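We emphasize that the prediction below concerns an isolated chain of 240 residues; any contacts that depend on oligomerization or on bound cofactors are therefore not represented. The input was used exactly as deposited, without trimming of termini.
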Amino acid sequence: MVTSNVDASVPTGSGPDAITFRLAKLREALAAGRSRMSCLRRWSEFIRERDGHRCVDCHSQQRLSAHHICRKSLFGAAQFDTGNGITLCRECHKEVHVGFNGRPDRSLPVDAQGGEKLALMERLYSILVDDAVERGLLCEDFYYISDEVLDSLKRMQGYDVSACFPGSRLEQAYLTLAETEWQVRRALAKANGFDLDSGPLLPGGMMIVFDNDHGRPQQSVVVQGYSPRWQTSDEPDSKE
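Result of the prediction step, given as a token string:
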């Protein structure tokens, strides 16, 4: 957990102005080429400010820290992404680090050591999307995830990087991890004798399988029922 002294120049109150201030400080540190620890400190300050200085999971305001949802030891590009952080209290933070917490062995399949916890990553991205929408803060600056990270998540799930997932970048990270792995879907389809549509099957969607003239399954069509939750505006909602 990274701590720092309170900056007297920070706008009072936890709102868009204070969040934007912390974001500017993070960007200044990155642009100036400051040390990794200095930039991580600024990143942590931004995440906690954006999340209203409370645990996004249980809403406790005690012993808070900024947690990297996608471990920076797995994807270095994710360490300063604003959409890859979530504020957690001490107890919730301990839970996400139970088990293997070392540097991953990249020669093994993803999460073979139990350190990535893909289902937990999906859940944290999901509750962060919900929190951003409920507070009227969902915008790409406050919840940014790089193309490199999004493409890596797609490859982890067996999808081509060109596969289209809707919504903001944060929402795309959640939806990618919410997908059943492509290899598993393809194997199930093959076992039942039909070709599989290459697109993702998003939450709320359905797959319709058409039989051929002999009554055997032949072709599938995915019908999407998911509505993206992102705001069309580039600016956060200023309502308190």
